[in-house]
Amino acid sequence: MSARVRIGNARSGGWWWRLPILAIIWLAFAAPVVTFFIGASVLRTWAKDLPEVPDLSVWRANAPQTSLIVSADGSHLAEPPFKDAGVVGRRTLVVLDDVPQVAIKAVLAAEDVRFFTHKGYDPQAILRALRVRYEGGRRQGASTITQQLARNLLPVEIGTEQSFRRKTREALMARKIERRWTKPQILETYLNYVYFGHGAYGLAAAARAYFDEEVDQLTLAQSALIAGLIQAPSTLDPWNKPERARARRDEILARMLRASLIDESTRASASAEAIALKAPHSVVRVSWYTEQVRRFIGKALPDDFDRGGLIVETAANVAQGEQLQHDVDEHASKWNDAEAAAIVWDHQSGYIEALVGGRTVPHDVFDRAIQSCRQPGSAFKAILYGAALETGAITPGTPLRDAPIAEYDEETNVHWKPKSGEHFRGIVLAQDAIAASLNAPAIDVFDRTGPDAIIKLARRLGITSQLDPVRPMALGASCVKPFELAHAYAVIARRGWAVAPRFVVRVRRGDDTMFDAAVPEDPWLDSARRFDRVAATAGMDPAERVGAEGGRLIDETTVFQLQDMLAAVVDHGTGSGAKMLGRPAAGKTGTTNDNTDAWFIGFTGRALAAVWVGFDDPLHKLGPEGDGRRAALPLWVRAIRTTEADRPRVPVPGPPPGGMDHVTIDRETGLRAADGAGGLPLWFKAGTAPSETAGAPGTSATDFGESSRQF
After folding, report:
1. Would residue 72 be called left, alpha or beta, if left means φ above 0 and alpha means ψ between -120 and 50 degrees?
2. Which of 15, 256, 541, 554 could join 559 in a cystine, given CB atoms 3.0 to 4.6 angstroms apart?
3. Mean pLDDT of 507-520
4. How far is residue 169 from each of residues 178, 194, 196, 231, 522, measured CA to CA in Å?
5. Are strands 311-314 and 68-70 parallel, antiparallel or unpaired?
6. Cβ contacts of residue 273 below 8 Å, gap of 6+?
7. Mean pLDDT, residues 615-631 taken together
């Protein structure tokens, strides 16, 4: 029997060769799973601190926007830009239905052509961008409109770094946004948010910035150019780089063709159009007035004004303001190209209807009505005589001394010898003295009253400028600002009630009213709002109704006397030129030394106007005839005629208050005039009129003519 030969198994102990095969098999099945779990873990890590989905309606309500200042009739006066974190820009929100389809399609072609089909991120765009980058081509973006919106609305939370993490978080947030908000809502927000260059945020602002058009008037070519700017507003700026802008526009048109958003003939026609840019026109009207509104809102509501989106309703009457500017320019040119300022004020409502701070000079921002401090001359006498009447120092019938005055100031080495009309009269009744604007009697009134009482009244009436307590103050030697003096006269016109100058009537943002000072008499109110304002102001005194503090600032009997004395200025005094209005009025002229400044401030039963004419450099004079009567009063007449138009005539001073006596005074004696003897009818507070009658037995008559000769 032959021996068996055992041959060893070649694979015995050689199982290691199976390991690579097993590893390959394991990796083929396990790697995707592991990768999936690792990826999921990373995504969970990146996603767990994602912020809440932004509320697009809240963003719309709070978005920085262009504000709008409007006149009383709703005309646009100005569109102040917003200021947000150092950025100054313009934005006007629009609803998607107001955006033309050509503009929507152009933006989609430029930024996200599959916007209405993807779920927040676009896999095709991502793969295209990766392929182009791998092949070394120009870097392309793959962010959808929703991703861009997520990044822009949440820059801190999403991040701004160039990284896969940021892109992933951006896509995740975009997906969440699309679950909560509809495509139209997202697109509308994007079109209102995105920056187009030149301070234009949103499509509406871009339409104005480049073509001075409303957004609904954009053409296809214009829309394609604007849409192309989103990528790089500075690099593609059509104002500075028109060739680049045109090339980009044509690229957008080509994309629209490839996406079947337009046909070839439409593309060719739009591409052939020249880029006809048009700078936005300035919407600033009645610029002096509008600037005061800007300053007021900027001071009263600084944060809200910076944020913008305000609708600022003013009391400005545009037609009246533009006419006043024309009248100022024309009138001032007749006086050696002097400057002039004018204010028109509805003293019953407190509304400032028109304001002109100087002639029409584009670069001039110095408002002479508000900022210039000038000597008022005899226009200050209304305050002087008001203080004297208030303290009982005089009555309208008090005989005053009209004689030469000479003083020498040792400190300044100045001789002071004020003139008083064409000649000195000796003795003159107070009402005749103010009507004729006599200076010597005004000094007499000053001496009787004392500077403290005069200054105190001036302060109550709104004059804040420094007043020197010296005799020349009686003649308007201390400078005041035209607006201050207008305010003082407005209180006088209102029978002593305080008044708040009202440039701004209402401020609102959307449905939120932030400020409302409308009076029920406002002719521009609709019936519902008028009812609301009647309810809001019911039971208030005349000062409270116009938003003023202080109540009655002058006793009614005193201010009635003062109104009557100022009416005498118009009736038979230096302001008689105002009678050409054909309606009752009261006021006062003012002229300073050598006709440097000319003034007239006066009022009707409803409106007040203040006019100053002169030169910024007081070394320049108006000339020998440049006094208040000839250089300022004619402009005042034009201003009042424009504002009053065909309104009903209102008596000035109107019905007297209780406690007044109407007595006719004999100009020769200062006593009561005898029956049928004529004289000067004056109003006296009860118990202050002369008790004796001129020419009656036992009276000691004063011969004013003889007194005049003695002086």
Report:
1. alpha
2. 554
3. 93
4. 14, 20, 25, 21, 55
5. parallel
6. 219, 221
7. 95
What per-residue confidence (pLDDT) applies to 121? Answer: 81
Q: Is the separation of the CB atoms in 626 and 594 below 8 Å? A: no
Torsion of CA 465, 466, 469, 472, to 10 degrees: -70
Indicate whether 239 pLDDT > 70. Answer: yes
Buried b / exposed e along 307-329 (16+ C-beta atoms within 10 A): bbbbbbbbbbbbebbebbbebbe
| Residue 538: both structure tokens together | 């019911």
Instruction: Measure the CA–CA gap between 70 and 314, rounded to whole angstroms.
Output: 6
Q: Is the pLDDT of residue 28 over 70?
A: no
Residue 167: predicted pLDDT: 75
Packing angle of the helix pair 220-229, 101-111 (nearest 10 deg): 30
- Pair 640, 629: CB distance under 8 Å: no
How far apart are the C-alpha atoms of 186 and 451, rounded to whole Å? 70
What tokens were used for 131?
């392929």
Tens-digit pLDDT profile for residues 546-567:
988 899 999 999 999 999 999 9
Closest C-alpha among 163, 165, 117, 164 to residue 144: 117
- Per the listing, tokens 């009063």 go with 633
The strand pair at 504-509 and 311-314 is best described as antiparallel
Quickly tell me which residue has 């406002």 as its tokens. Answer: 522
Q: What would the 3-class secondary structure string for 221-265 be?
A: HHHHHHHHHCCCCCCCCCCCCHHHHHHHHHHHHHHHHHCCCCCHH
Tokens of residue 518, six digits:
């409308």
Other C-beta atoms closer than 10 Å to the C-beta of 704 total 20
Q: Which amino acid is at 148?
A: Q
Averaged over 682-710, what is the pLDDT?
71
Task: With CA atoms as reference, report the closest residue to 405 among 444, 450, 459, 463.
Answer: 444
Tallying the residues shown for the chain, one arrives at 711
State the DSSP H helix or E strand holding residue 307, giving kind and residue range, or none if neither: helix 302-307
How remote is the C-alpha of 608 from its chain's centroid? Answer: 21
